[in-house]
DNA sequence: CAGTATCCGGCCGGATACTG
DNA sequence: CAGTATCCGGCCGGATACTG
């Protein structure tokens, strides 16, 4: 859980000025969580290696860390099948699924405004150059 | 711009499996951006020190970095008044303001589900302990 | 298969001091 | 006031090798 301590500290230091969405951002948008949740939501229940391959550039160590975090937060469910070789399946939970509209909202904002951001960056860099 | 290279790299390596909300997450939810945008949205145009005090635990160096990033992305507007002493004002842009519904959505999700996350964590930790 | 163990580099953010 | 310059520690994530 990457930046959580930061938010928590800030919230406790200056409670009245705390950004109300701080804690939830740490839960939902910490690193690798969106591709993992997205993959689980799109392609359903998956094994460890499937997720690993689908995400592409994540290492097993980090994937394990993120999956544990998401499981602890209740956003995914891990099922262990005691077979040989072992089989483990991950699926999105109801709580995780409840994020779908939010993600859709974000995707909509992106498709509408991402090119505006791009243009802004371009203009800013052009001005800085001269 | 903190984790951007990561997302970009992943997207270019495995385009077909890329999480579509990756890039926008880096823009909107990179560190300190939500409290800055929130403060600017709630309290209107503010000077550097006002923001610094309101956010509470951020250092000037980091605040400058984040403000520059947000300005470059077009989410805020910086106005420099050439006086002595200098006066600089920051305000949220139309593009930044367009994030308000999204933030509201996030706040709603948080108020509905944050205690579920808390309970899940508690249960998980209790199980791990034994 | 589904991870764990170790090592390691880079980067980010904090602290501190200074400036036009 | 609104920053910049420097230094520095910690942490996170990647690479690699290994295991029940």
From TrEMBL, chains A, B:
Q: Does the keyword Cell membrane apply?
A: no
Q: Which Pfam families match?
A: HxlR (PF01638)
Asked if the Swiss-Prot or TrEMBL record annotates the protein with the keyword Transcription, the reply is: yes
Q: Which InterPro entries match?
A: ArsR-like_HTH, HTH_HxlR, WH-like_DNA-bd_sf, WH_DNA-bd_sf
Question: Which SUPFAM superfamilies does the entry link to?
Answer: Winged helix' DNA-binding domain
List residues of the HTH hxlR-type domain: 19-118
Q: Which UniProt keywords apply?
A: DNA-binding, Transcription, Transcription regulation
Q: What is this protein called?
A: Winged helix-turn-helix transcriptional regulator
């Amino acid at each position: 859980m990457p930046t959580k301590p930061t938010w928590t500290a800030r919230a406790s230091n200056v409670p009245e000025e705390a950004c109300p969405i701080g804690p939830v951002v740490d839960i939902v948008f910490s690193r690798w969580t969106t591709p993992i949740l997205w993959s689980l939501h799109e392609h359903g229940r998956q094994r460890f290696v499937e997720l690993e391959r689908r995400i592409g550039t994540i290492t097993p160590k980090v994937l394990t860390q993120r999956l544990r975090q998401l499981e602890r937060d209740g956003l995914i469910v891990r099922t262990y099948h005691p077979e040989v070789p072992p089989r483990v399946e991950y699926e999105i939970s109801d709580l995780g699924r409840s994020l779908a509209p939010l993600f859709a909202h974000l995707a909509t904002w992106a498709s509408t405004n991402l090119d505006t951001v791009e243009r802004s960056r371009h203009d800013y860099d052009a001005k800085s150059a001269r």
